Amino acid sequence: RSRGKKIDIHVKVDTGMGRLGIWHKEALEFINGLLEFSHLSIKGIYTHFPSADTDRAFTQKQIKQLTELVRKLDKKGCVVPYIHAANSMGLVGYQGKILNLARAGLMIYGLCPSDSIKRKVKLTPAMTIKARVIFLKRITKGQSVSYGRTFIAKKNMLVATLPVGYND
Predict the structure, then answer these.
(1) CA atoms of 47 and 76, how far apart (whole Å)
(2) Does the reported pTM lie above 0.90?
(3) Which of 114, 113, 12, 118 is nearest to 62 (CA)?
(4) N or C: which end of the chain has fewer CB within 10 A?
(5) DSSP assignment of 126-153
(6) How, if at all, do strands 40-46 and 22-23 pair?
(7) What does the DSSP assignment read for 70-84?
(8) Maximum CA pair distance of the chain?
(9) Residue 101 pLDDT more than 80?
(10) In this structure, how many other beta carbons lie within 10 angstroms of the beta carbon of residue 58?
(11) What is the pLDDT of residues 125-162, one digit of tens each?
(12) In this structure, how many other beta carbons lie within 10 angstroms of the beta carbon of residue 31?
């Protein structure tokens, strides 16, 4: 503002992801507050689909919530040019009349987020991950491996550790 410049912004609306963004029920009031700042220009409103591949009803509810917000803003004369909500599955698996920008997610890397869309879109993997084994360990039946104990050994086995985590 002190430099006399406008800043283009996109407002993230939480319709169910539960991470970042203003909760959808509070978004209209929040955006009304933003409109009071003459140096801000709202160019986009967006949300994110946490379960587009597994919960169609929930995702459609998210689209409806975002649509209702955009319509309320339109009625006030606040027409936002870019409305986006799609991850890869949302982009291919859902149609939204108000969505006009996309964030492709896994598809950028040539990966299908779900077997159900492999028939709709032909993708070619765009990357390869290569790593060397840095540690071998024998574990016994019932031992767990990884965060959240996501793997439980069904038998005695040899497991390998690869340096491909965030730390690496």
Answers:
(1) 21
(2) no
(3) 12
(4) C
(5) ---------EEEEE-TT-EESGGG-EE-
(6) unpaired
(7) HHHHHHTT---SEEE
(8) 68
(9) yes
(10) 14
(11) 888 889 999 999 999 999 999 878 889 999 999 999 99
(12) 20
